Amino acid sequence: MNPQPEPIGPIPHHDVVVIGAGQAGLSMSRQLTDRGIDHIVFERDTIAHEWRDTRWDNFTLVTPNWQCALPGYRYDGPDPDGFMTREEVYAWVRAYADTFAPPVREHIAVTAVTAAAAGGFDIETTAGRLHADQVVVAAGGYHTPTVPRFAERLPAGIRQLHSAEYRNAADLPEGGVFVVGTGQSGAQIAEDLHLAGREVHLAVGSAPRVARFYRGRDCVAWLQDMGHYDLPIENQPGGLGKRENTNHYVTGRDGGRDIDLRRFALEGMALYGRMVDVRDGSFLFEPSLEKSLDAADAVAEGIKDSIDAYIARAAVDAPIEPRYQPVWRPDHETTVLDPVALGITSLVWAVGFRTDYRWLRVGVFDGEGHPCHNRGVTGTDGLYFLGLPWLHTWGSGRFAAVARDAEYLADRIRRTARETAAA
């Protein structure tokens, strides 16, 4: 077969290429548009598709609607203290794109980015090649669903799926459902199944939890007033290690409430420690359930301690509220379980994702494949990341602070362009 001929004429050029058209990529586009900077946005699917395609039917935000803000665009609906559903978030982000008509090319995937010998970056896409002076990667940090190697040893009759594939309880076969993982997705999916009347088994990990409301307000509102969400990652306890932390579990469903795994256990949900293996058809667990429940409660109570201290320091008039008391404790730790004998017919892996930047052929990654950056600015001139968890603050991977991060990078991009032009 003869090779495809090289394109005739100059390769197309843009000052900036943005990769990804979710809320981060759109925020970047708006900031660049406001500054009159030439750019194009490539999206392998459609604008904001992740909100529509990778969340379950009853998904809601866990942060209140008043915290949702993009550049020049804020939530202005009827329920600022509520929590948008999956469909509402998708519609809200799509409507944002309509406010300024970003130059998005949908259904075009970026397949390679390399540093160009003459400066800038050579970019290969499914629609052809081009060159850019600067590149913003706004493709998120959750690329490939994680499933442990021992998943291949599950009994053949058990249907497996990742949390990104879960949609609703009715899609699963009749019988018990096992959920592995208690980060935000795992805890909320377990609740979704429980509320649907399914028999649920849950392997509890080390994720912390937070109360939904305390002393008359959403805990998010208290923490916002305390400046918690504006504190840069390097000033947080644990520093850059925060980027590896699991999010606190809580829910915005039905107006928002705690997720109390102990309460679920009282209502019939079976809880286990961390799942570590499958052998001879049996699930194996660490005897870590009680320790994990106590640790999650301790984090929630510690957050309340900080809120109490703020209320006292600022002399805020707030109602007194009794502290949480555990409603259930395990009387034993199950370490071996026969899923078939218990009638378990499906399993949901809610154990996270890993990054996949194989197409980004620039040396800006650590040994684990995570990008090295300072507030999204890498060690390679002109290459940036936006929308990653803890890019700069807690809100960087959320609606709370992506606008601020995009503004910072847009100013940096403009300054770099001017310095390059003057050289």
UniProtKB/TrEMBL annotation:
Keyword Oxidoreductase annotated: yes
InterPro entries, sorted: Auxin_biosynth/cation_transpt, CHP04046_FMN-dependent, FAD/NAD-bd_sf
Origin superkingdom: Bacteria
The keyword Ubl conjugation belongs to this UniProt entry's keyword annotation: no
Keywords: Oxidoreductase
Annotated Pfam families: Pyr_redox_3
GO molecular function, one term: flavin adenine dinucleotide binding
PANTHER family: FLAVIN-BINDING MONOOXYGENASE-LIKE PROTEIN (AFU_ORTHOLOGUE AFUA_4G09220), FLAVIN-CONTAINING MONOOXYGENASE
Entry protein name: FAD-dependent oxidoreductase
Organism per entry: Nocardia jinanensis
